[in-house]
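for the writeup, i need someone to sanity check this before i put it in the appendix. the sequnce is what the collaborator sent (i think, or maybe the updated version? ugh). structure was predicted straight from it, no edits. if anything looks off just tell me and ill rerun, i have time this weekend
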Amino acid sequence: MPKTVVTINIPEKEILKYYSGVAKNILAPDINGVHIQFPASILRSFVTKEGIQGTFEIEFDNNGKMQQVRRL
């Protein structure tokens, strides 16, 4: 299955936009510089009081649907 790796650094104040519904998607460059858009909800389990920071691997099925995300 296709995979991509993104590094995300969204501070606490910014992540509140996703929880309030003002923003629904995250746009982040992968390790090759290609911008990937995905629902913010897939990172919900990784949110801390500081926001979301880290490098994540996102796995897609052959139709481009997100299947799994994990912190690297």
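The longest helix spans residues 12-20. Helices lie at 12-20.
thx in advance!!
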